[in-house]
Structures
1.
Amino acid sequence: MLRACCALAVARALGARADEPAAEPPPEAVAPPQPGDVLVYALGARTNQPIALADVAAGAKQITAFPMDPKTRRVRDGTRLNQLIVVRIAASLLSEETRSRAADGVVAYSGVCTHTGCDVTDWVAPAQHLKCPCHESEYDPGDAARVVSGPAPWQLAALPLKIVDGVLAVAAPFVGKVGFAQPGSPSGE
Amino acid sequence: MLARSSLESRQTVCRRCAFSKARAASAAVGLLALVAFMQLAKAAEPARNYSAVTDARLVSPEPRNWLMYRRTYDSWGYSPLDKINARNVQELVPVWSASTGTTEGHQSPPIVNDGTMFITTPFNQVLAYDAASGELLWRYQRRMPPDIRMGHPTNRGVALLGDKLYMATSDAKVVALDARTGRVVWDKAVEDYNGGYYMTMAPLAARGKIMVGVSGGERGIRGFVVALDAETGSEVWKTYTIPGPGEPGHESWPGDSWKTGGGPVWVTGSFDPALGLTYWGTGNPGPWTGDRRPGDNLYTSSVLALDVETGKLRGYHQYHWNDSWDWDEVSAPLLIDVQRDGRTVHGLVHPARDGYLWFLERAESGISFVAAKPYVTQNVFTSIDPKTGRPSYDESHKPAVGKSAKYCPSLWGGKDWPPAAYSPKTGLLYIPANENLCSEMEGDDTEYRRGQQFTAAQTNDFTVAAGATHIGELQAWNVKTRERAWTHEYASPNWGPVLATGGGIVFEGGTSDRYFHAFDAATGKQLWQYRTNSGITGVPTTFEVGGVQYVAVQSGWGVDAQGMLGRIDKARGTDTVVPQGGVIWVFALHSR
């Protein structure tokens, strides 16, 4: 059972074989999330389908998402810097800042850890914290994804949300820096 | 002052290109009359000579030099230099130091070729210095792609061949630089970093080839070693550590698990020039718990003998099958020959992450098992087959999906990547070990997602043995008798690569108290220590310039050493602060 599911996932994720260079994604696929973009599932059986508000359970593990241009239906999955994580937090656990960006308790953040750029894929259920598996940085999604513990230097970039026709949509561009700092690298052109 | 080279303006900043200036001057000289040329020739000579590195020099390096990761192809980490010795090591003082300008784990050895030193730092920076004066000759910086996952921000050093040096990069490329200027000669991708591949090891240079392996055992890669032509960067051969369909060993992987089965190679291999064979340690299979991939999972957690010319697999030994503990066996075995029962045993010696010290024999026909014994507390192996060396397991200490199991040593093993050293003078092998640590792990059913973490496991608990008074150890083992000669204990964990010298000294850092230590190689008595800027996980080296012997090491705490310390703090309720930041330190005798 597990084997079958994983094999499918492998085939899908690999797409082109490693020895065939992938085609350059079109500009709209790598553009950052735009206001009005709809959030779609990045993984699983409902990949590329819009995420309905009703499908996001409070306190549940984060859903991985990408923004999609609702007109062209182009998913902006050409760069992993557009990878988003979505969770729903009880109103009592939301800071004022985060409440202003939330849609009915649902918040979205960049899925790229600010420490060394790994994917923030783990969920600490008791504390309702987002966690990076690489070096165990934990973020509080109820409070602007501030760093609770671990080596991450700053919070995850936040993506303000709204609800359009019952599905999650982008209300405003990212707040904060997406990606991680590269110490010692040249500091600009 | 800060002259950027036009060709690599984004990547290379050339601070003091003494060599290129000299070359420009040299060209101008050609326009002058012969007499003028004769007069000017001396002044127009390159400001520094650079001794081309030949195969012969790599096989038999001058005592004064340290030309590769472990100095010699046998991976001894030994220098015959003896001006610094047990009688005077107390007089060792720093003679120059330099900030690397970056953070994270500084692990590379200062590589020295006739007075020119090269170090690498995290984020794939290379710095070239005058090894005696500390003058910075050039600096190469590399901008990482913004979407990279920098799981292990570190680099373990350069390889030298001809007038070039070579570095494997975090974005899965090999870059060749002109050793005199730092200019990029070629830059070749060996894999796609978005697929979870990255590189941290110092390449192995031999027979006109630059050999590297790939990291990513936690990200669903299929490991390999690739040899590139040193002049052009084009691929000469590539050998996967996981056999494909139709190849022997493929049957040790169910279904498609081989495609994402890990088996990375991230520490420099050893080389036996007489046999023409390179020896590589391979890392863990993935995902972490073995029930996700029932079978032996060849050739993970193994040593491979690869033909240097063709890459053909000529032998292997798997230290432990169906790894379920994240016990990479990436350190290459040391090639140590001993006399036993009236014959020379051409040995392979490996202090393993699985907590056992392995003695194997190498030959043209392959690798055979000799003996193995634990050097730290190990509760997984119940026995070792005396003929094959295959261990049997206590299943209660083997984690699986939905089954949490505790095991010792921890997932970082008895010894992780920091290299052991061997001294032919003492006949002792020096192992940087960690004792008294255990892990608890439980697998889950996480699916593969390209490039993402694919351990499919949670490390639930990390424990320090009750009543433990120490964690780190420097152990010395007699290779001939296979008995332990001495042990030095540290309260701190030990992540210190080891240097052994002809002066009868063993050097290492490794502890969170930031000390660089010197021990009597025969007795283990501590003779000297010096407190540096940060914790030392760098490989120490020694070299001679102008008749003076120097010892050099980078200090800069980070990556797994920091990760383990965090786990120990959590288990003990302590808070050990070791600020990051890299510095290269160079020591010599006060009375030099």
2.
Amino acid sequence: MNWLEVKNVSKQFSGHLAVDNASFSAKEGDIICLVGPSGCGKTTALRMIAGFETPTSGEIWLGGKEVSALPAHKRNIGITFQNYALFPHMTVEANVAFGLRMRKIGQADSRARVAAALAMVRLGGLEKRFPNQLSGGQQQRVALARAIVIEPVMLLLDEPLSNLDAKLREEMRVEIKEIQSRLKITTVFVTHDQEEALTIADRIAVMHAGRVVQEDSPVGVFEKPQHSFVAGFIGQSNLLRGTVGAETDGRVTMRTDTGLELRGRAIKPVPPGTPAIAVIRHPRIQVDRKGTSETTLANLFPGRVELINYLGDAVQYVCALGKTDRIIATAAIANADEIALAAGEDVQISWAPGDCLIVEDASMIENDAG
Amino acid sequence: MKGRALWTNLGAALWLALIYLYVLGPAVVVIIGSFNTATSFPSDFEGFTLGWYAQLAEHGEFLDALFVSIQIGFIAAFIGSIVGIPVALALARYEFRLKGAITAFIMAPLILPQIVLGMAMLQLLTAVQLPATFAGLALIHAVFVMPYVVRAMLSCLAGLNPSVSEAAASLGANAWQRFLLITLPITRAGIMAGFIFAFIMSFINLPLSLFLTTPTSTTLPIRMFAYMESRIDPFIAAVGSLTVIAVIAGSFFIEKVLKVRLLA
């Protein structure tokens, strides 16, 4: 049985549907990531689980109980906020002890638990500081300690890493994962960063325009996107719009709006004539100097290198394909000498049909609500 | 460039000095006059004396009026806070229909002519067959000062992160605990500033009190006004100076110690 069960939940704000019939679930001890662009409804979904918002319709089950009508202070859920939301008038110690105080835990017991929680987030020694004397990373740790010290039935993390700088973000992500797996606490992690979601989650619910468009394992959303939005949002991909043609030998053909004939594979059956999107990951594109190419790949097109972006351990070629298409290819490199091409050079751009996912174009039905 | 910047700064400083002179000049004239040995006010400065201040001890009616004003100020500020703080919390936290209209209604006492407000209150009290009393006076002052409480509180709440109260809820605090342990301590400065400001606005108010004053509930401004109808001398300047200094001290405390911007 799932520990968290969000069933057909919607939330309407004066005329605007923030969450639209969303369903997702998490097994006990799992991290589920709600991922999507800003305004996709992920934070509203989180706020409904926390009890700050009441669903307009649908049910939220937690540990086998329906909690939709339960006020936030009776849910025993730990939450951290994007802006940390520490109590500015209390010391670190008092912040962390607040939940225990509400539970009428005795002084000695409380002190021991606060110390343990602060040790867990590696903040021992800062007990007497006030929030405005702490760095962003330290504030986030206090917020985390404050949320876990009450031994909540569930942990909600709203964009916990987005206000930290890149290096600290990585460090904190690993730490959150460690703490979470040590406590075996079921966690909902909200982020707009698909890479973050892929690395930290056991399950991912990709949200778009208030809906959960795919709920799957990280591998599932990455390798088998069921929806064109997921295909475009997860991973670094080239997207080409077009119309599905015939299906032969398990391969689907697609004619792009710009006139290219592609061969690829469909994850879900797409009948001929369907508007579709071809999705090709950046690293799966091969770019070779014209004439020297020995490739026999089915998708082979002449193009031109427009821009070369050096990424350190990889190089990114931004290429013009045909008149209007633009294709980005990345190649791993051991050193800069391996950058074989120059900007302005005519090249052959190719990719294998197996690396070319053809997904029905859902954006033809719904507009990007942002 | 440097020279021009200097002249610009000098010009700005001069302009500022002129504005200060225009605003505070009359108060300075009164304060200087209160130390003058001459028996009329205003007049040329003849010599320094503290005698006019000493005379205050002989004017029991002024001390009584001061006491009435302090009492009314406290009651008005207290009632204004009790009503105004929840109003400000609601205005800051929730979006609702007609919010603009309701805000304007709450702030209305600020722009309504007070003389009209005072007269309306007198008619109301007469209509319900209540004589003008101390309580009536305190009540009408409360209505008038409430918007100042709302103002101070709103300016303080603008800097309050709404998630903070939600964090407390997630940790098990009910609405009452959230108010007492989180919102109230964080907005303490705003509450104190609102209270002091409300007290000051009541303390210096003349037009509202004009209709509702009785022999036993005469406020200090009314007493001063009555005194000045017969004569104006350095004694009344001394009383006025004390009032001005008290008000400036209160405002300074709000702006510098509590760090609440009242009129921003």
